């Protein structure tokens, strides 16, 4: 998912240095004060042993580097300690409950890591002769089969590197299909609750964006949507379940209407995890949808990537799928890399080589481990966990939309009215309680959004502790203890950071002259 | 199912709290005809051991680069990855964290990104870098789009030596955004600088030059930079083998305005082409036009130094359709691997690593030049060069594979349809190639040619 603060800057409030907690070293027990790696190097140290070599007949053509790079010298034990200490300043799914709405922070099984590193998978060169990588192409083809079967779609483009990249793939296919029809359609309809990537992607494909309002049930206002249809509309980009955590129950009507108007239906698959194995998006009339393997199929988020965004395509869009793609010609798997060799009319290429193979391996291992039955159970548990939070917190917080939710539940800040506590303050207080905050201020359709996505990975015991904590904090806020919230978090390696100052005069790297 | 903690008892109790009868009842908003009553037609759940066995069977069908002599480059290089790198990136606090939007509980990732940005800036000789892109190809395309924004022009001059995948990705974006690409024909002996310069005019937004180029040739960028700047265009330097910068002059010291690189060579395995890590560096004056996430330094309420994601008003989650790029997820974990490897190397290590690569490549080039039917075309190179063979290279490469040697990449794979290149292949050498590997390739080529 995209943003946690929607541009709201995190301005520090006057915080009190707790008296009596200062130490001589700057570290506090297991909480280490760790300098930048550039501040700890010494000449003559190294973390790798490489023997010096003589170059007999150098071929650099006078282009040898004149100055040192400037990287510090450190030994292996220093490096191990540096990164261990840095890791301890991070919150991961392995550390605790991470109900970050729209981001799908579910368990990352370690078997997937092991398999991705297997000899014969992790060490293949992308441009080996195809005869030497038949197993790798089989793996991609197998994953493609799972994705097509789960979505009931006829084709899938495997190369997109992340969700937003998959959006680009789908929208480029749509643009190519429209051009092939000899038409010129320039407008794309995007609900106001959409992820920021949707309008950004439409713009990157040369479309203009026209926003559709939500109705009071948190869904697309179908009358407003229909009023916007016209001969210049290329398509709609709709997330389903949407970013309010709700299933768009008019989706079939929306699909019919957009098709009748000559446009295409891009479904943002960011929330596929809610329905995976239970509802096939192809049965809902979509034309394309990216699948975030790092969400639904649990490839690790890695502190911001890498992801993978294979994009399923309908019959109408399949001919325009980008190169490369894998086929089986009856004898062997084949990678079609050259558009001229294609049976279709590929719109181009989206990235180097063939896609995020390391993510494919992990995702396929995850899918095979679950099986079709386990995937069905997982989406059921994810939706049950979210509804359990909704039902258990509904009377304390303010639920934005009545009725059942899907895999995530949206609250707004009405429950904080007149408390002088903001959504941001509330989220920061959750950190002190040992939980990662929920998504804040997204989606934009409600005021002060708090979006919680528990996923299927959480036990009832964890959810109960979380519920007890949220209720307790809400009571505290309503009781008038605003200062407690303003000064949170207190128990973190750093307290609130000045984001305004960071943006005003950006310091984006270490430099010897200013930092020594 | 081993990943699902809820018991049937839990489910029953929780459904009671929610007030629905069964799990299906939770999906009441789904049109009934679309709700599946039974699992789709795919295999059922399996244990770790079974899944590992299936995957191992597929892995066994491939010729791997760990046990076969391999001389494949073309923008993806097999280097030794120190054990520390792979151990550290698998720490759960790094592996299983999200994008660091909550800085108080993400100082680890953020400090890593700040260090990564500094290392990228140092290696490329630039002032600033972002927190990574998907790969070198997308980084290059984003660099061209950024140059178009900065110069408000829409014509990119792209050297013939740019990796064809990088060019194709850029062309794909050009098609949709309506900008123009002009380009001289690729030449295995290296780009003709005078020809390239002749294409730059006052409508040119940027000149894109890869060095070492896809054929392995090194290029002096200074003259091209001067010519570009004279016409108000930017120079985009592309590098697909970042280890070269331990030995070869940095593009930032030759007048580059944007540097786009593939960073796979440090810390990241070949992995059949991904995930990799795109590097993106530029000058501070262009930073607000830069794509992607950036980490910046700041202070917390107690005055302690810390880090946050910054300049986010360029990005899609704030700017929506007016963003500098649609990128959201990038290559965080690959950037971490890159950064740890660079930290382990230090100045002395990167220099020695680069020298080893160059020395071995020189050695192999000299060995192959003595084989009948092999001509080494490069006057300059770092660790990869082009050879012209007496037979079609694709056939030779297949025969080498039959002998268990991954001998090179036929240029016909990268430039399909270009008959000038039919008999040529590119050969890469790294520190992982032993004298025995090189002898095996030389002997095999003698037999085949």
Write the layout of secondary structure elements.
The complex is a heterodimer of chains A (516) and B (449).
Chain A: H1 76-87, H2 110-116, H3 134-151, E1 155-157, H4 163-180, E2 187-191, H5 197-204, E3 208-212, H6 222-228, E4 233-239, H7 251-260, E5 264-268, E6 288-290, E7 311-313, E8 325-328, E9 333-336, H8 357-393, E10 398-399, E11 409-412, H9 423-432, E12 439-440, E13 450-452, H10 460-478, H11 482-486, H12 499-504, H13 512-515
Helix pairs in contact in A: 2-8, 3-8, 4-5, 8-10
Chain B: H1 8-18, H2 48-60, H3 83-89, H4 92-95, H5 107-124, E1 128-129, H6 136-151, E2 155-158, H7 164-177, E3 180-182, H8 193-198, E4 204-210, H9 222-230, E5 234-239, E6 258-262, E7 278-282, E8 294-299, E9 305-310, H10 316-319, H11 332-369, E10 374-376, E11 384-389, H12 393-402, E12 409-410, H13 411-414, E13 424-428, H14 435-448
Parallel strand pairs in B: 2-3, 2-4, 4-5, 5-6
Antiparallel strand pairs in B: 1-7, 6-7, 8-9, 10-11, 11-13, 12-13
Commentary on this structure:
The complex is a heterodimer of chains A (about 525) and B (about 450). Helix content of chain A is about 30%, strand content about 10%. Chain A is globular, with a radius of gyration of 26 Å. In chain A, the strands form three sheets. A seven-stranded mixed sheet of chain A has the order 1-7-6-5-4-2-3, with helices on both faces. The two termini of chain A are about 40 Å apart. Chain A has helices at about 75-85, 110-115, 135-150, 165-180, 195-205, 220-230, 250-260, 355-395, 425-430, 460-480, 480-485, 500-505, 510-515, and strands at about 155, 185-190, 210, 235-240, 265-270, 290, 310-315, 325-330, 335, 400, 410, 440, 450. Mean pLDDT of chain A is about 95; it is low at about 1-10. Chain A has a domain at about 115-365: Aspartate Aminotransferase, domain 2 (3-Layer(aba) Sandwich). By secondary structure, chain B is α/β, with parallel strands linked by helices. Chain B is about 35% helix and about 15% strand. The model of chain B has no long low-confidence stretch (mean pLDDT about 95). In chain B, the strands form three sheets. Chain B has a seven-stranded mixed sheet with strand order 1-7-6-5-4-2-3, sandwiched between helices. A four-stranded antiparallel sheet of chain B has the order 10-11-13-12. In chain B, strands 8-9 form a two-stranded antiparallel sheet. In chain B, strand 8 and strand 9 (about 305-310) form a beta hairpin. Chain B folds into two domains: about 85-340, Aspartate Aminotransferase, domain 2 (3-Layer(aba) Sandwich), CATH 3.40.640; about 345-450, Aspartate Aminotransferase, domain 1 (Alpha-Beta Complex), CATH 3.90.1150.10. The chains are: A alpha/beta (about 525), B alpha/beta (about 450).
């Amino acid at each position: 998912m995209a943003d946690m603060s929607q541009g709201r800057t995190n301005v520090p409030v006057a915080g009190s240095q707790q008296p009596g907690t200062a130490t001589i070293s700057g570290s506090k027990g297991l909480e280490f004060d760790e300098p930048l790696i550039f501040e700890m190097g010494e000449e003559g140290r190294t973390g790798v042993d490489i023997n010096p070599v003589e170059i007999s007949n150098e071929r650099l053509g006078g282009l040898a580097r004149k100055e040192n790079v400037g990287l510090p010298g450190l030994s292996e034990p220093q490096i191990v300690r540096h990164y261990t200490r840095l890791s301890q300043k991070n919150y991961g799914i392995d550390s605790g409950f991470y109900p970050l709405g729209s981001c799908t922070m579910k368990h990352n099984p370690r078997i997937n890591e092991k398999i991705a590193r297997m000899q014969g998978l992790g060490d293949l060169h992308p441009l080996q002769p195809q005869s030497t990588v038949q197993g790798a192409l089989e793996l991609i083809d197998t994953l493609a089969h799972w994705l097509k079967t789960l979505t009931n779609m006829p084709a899938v483009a495997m190369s997109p590197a992340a969700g937003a990249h998959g959006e680009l793939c789908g929208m480029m296919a749509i643009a190519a299909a429209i051009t092939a029809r000899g038409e010129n359609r320039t407008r794309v309809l995007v609900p106001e609750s959409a992820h920021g990537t949707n309008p950004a992607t439409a713009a990157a494909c040369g479309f203009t964006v026209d926003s559709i309002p939500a109705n009071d049930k948190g869904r697309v206002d179908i009358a407003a949507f229909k009023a916007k249809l016209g001969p210049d509309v290329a398509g709609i980009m709709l997330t389903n379940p949407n970013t309010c955590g709700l299933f768009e129950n008019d989706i079939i009507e929306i699909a019919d209407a957009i098709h009748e108007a000559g446009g295409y239906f891009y479904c943002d698959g960011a929330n596929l995890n809610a329905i995976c194995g239970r509802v096939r998006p192809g049965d809902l009339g979509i034309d394309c949808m990216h699948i975030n393997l790092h969400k639904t199929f649990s490839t690790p988020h890695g502190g911001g990537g890498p992801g993978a965004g294979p994009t399923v395509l309908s019959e109408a869009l399949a001919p325009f799928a980008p190169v490369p793609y894998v086929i089986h010609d009856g004898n062997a798997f084949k990678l079609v890399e050259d558009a001229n060799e294609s049976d279709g009319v590929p719109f181009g290429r989206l990235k180097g080589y063939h896609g995020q193979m390391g993510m494919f391996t992990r995702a396929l291992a995850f899918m095979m481990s679950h099986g079709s039955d386990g995937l069905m159970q997982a989406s059921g548990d994810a939706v049950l966990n979210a509804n359990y939070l909704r039902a258990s917190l509904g009377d304390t917080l303010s639920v934005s939309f009545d009725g059942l939710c899907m895999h995530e539940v949206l609250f707004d800040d009405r429950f904080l009215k007149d408390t002088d506590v903001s959504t941001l303050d509330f989220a920061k207080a959750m950190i002190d309680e040992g939980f990662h905050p929920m998504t804040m201020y997204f989606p934009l359709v409600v005021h002060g959004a708090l979006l919680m996505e528990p996923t299927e990975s959480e036990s009832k015991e964890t959810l109960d502790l979380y519920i007890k904590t949220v209720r307790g904090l809400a009571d505290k806020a309503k009781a008038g203890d605003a200062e407690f919230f303003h000064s949170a978090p207190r128990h973190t390696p750093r307290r609130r950071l000045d984001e305004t100052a960071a943006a005003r005069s950006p310091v984006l790297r270490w430099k010897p002259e200013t930092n020594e | 199912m081993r990943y699902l903690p809820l018991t049937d008892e839990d489910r029953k109790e929780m459904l009671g709290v929610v007030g629905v009868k069964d799990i299906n009842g939770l999906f009441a908003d789904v049109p009934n005809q679309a709700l599946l009553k039974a699992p789709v037609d795919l295999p059922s759940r399996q244990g770790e051991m079974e899944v590992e066995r299936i995957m191992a069977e597929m892995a066994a069908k491939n010729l791997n680069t760990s046990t076969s002599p391999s001389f494949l480059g073309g923008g993806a290089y097999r280097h030794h990855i120190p054990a520390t790198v792979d151990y550290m990136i698998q720490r759960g606090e790094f592996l299983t964290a999200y994008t660091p939007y909550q800085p108080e509980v993400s100082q680890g990732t953020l400090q890593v990104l700040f260090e990564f940005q500094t290392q990228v800036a140092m290696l490329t000789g630039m002032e600033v870098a972002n927190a990574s892109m998907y790969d070198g190809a997308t980084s290059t395309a984003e660099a061209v789009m950024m140059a178009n924004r900065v110069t408000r022009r829409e014509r990119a001059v792209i050297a013939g030596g740019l990796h064809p995948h990088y060019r194709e990705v850029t062309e794909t974006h050009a098609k949709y955004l309506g900008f123009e690409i002009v380009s001289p024909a690729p030449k295995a002996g290296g780009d003709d600088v005078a020809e390239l310069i002749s294409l730059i005019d006052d409508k040119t937004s940027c000149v894109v030059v890869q060095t070492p180029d896809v054929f392995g040739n090194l290029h002096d960028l200074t003259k091209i930079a001067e010519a570009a700047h004279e016409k108000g265009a930017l120079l985009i330097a592309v590098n697909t083998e970042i280890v070269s910068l331990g030995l070869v002059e940095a593009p930032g010291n030759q007048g580059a305005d944007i540097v786009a690189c593939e960073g796979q060579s440090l810390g990241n395995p070949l992995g059949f082409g991904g995930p990799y890590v795109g590097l993106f560096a530029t000058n501070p004056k262009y930073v607000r036009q830069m794509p992607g996430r950036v980490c910046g330094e700041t202070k917390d309420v107690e005055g302690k130094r810390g880090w946050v994601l910054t300049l986010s008003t360029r990005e899609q989650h704030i700017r929506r359709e007016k963003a500098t790029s649609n990128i959201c997820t990038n290559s965080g974990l690959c950037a971490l691997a890159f950064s740890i490897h660079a930290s382990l190397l230090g100045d002395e290590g990167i220099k020695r690593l680069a020298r080893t690569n160059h020395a071995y490549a020189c050695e192999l080039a000299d060995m192959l030049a003595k084989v009948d039917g092999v001509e080494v075309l490069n006057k300059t190179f770092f660790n990869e060069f082009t050879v012209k063979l007496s037979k079609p290279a694709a056939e030779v490469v297949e025969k080498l594979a039959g002998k268990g040697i991954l001998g090179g990449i036929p240029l016909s794979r990268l430039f399909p349809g270009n008959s000038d290149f039919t008999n040529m292949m590119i050969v890469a050498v790294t520190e992982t190639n032993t004298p025995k590997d090189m002898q095996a390739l030389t002997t095999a080529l003698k037999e085949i040619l």
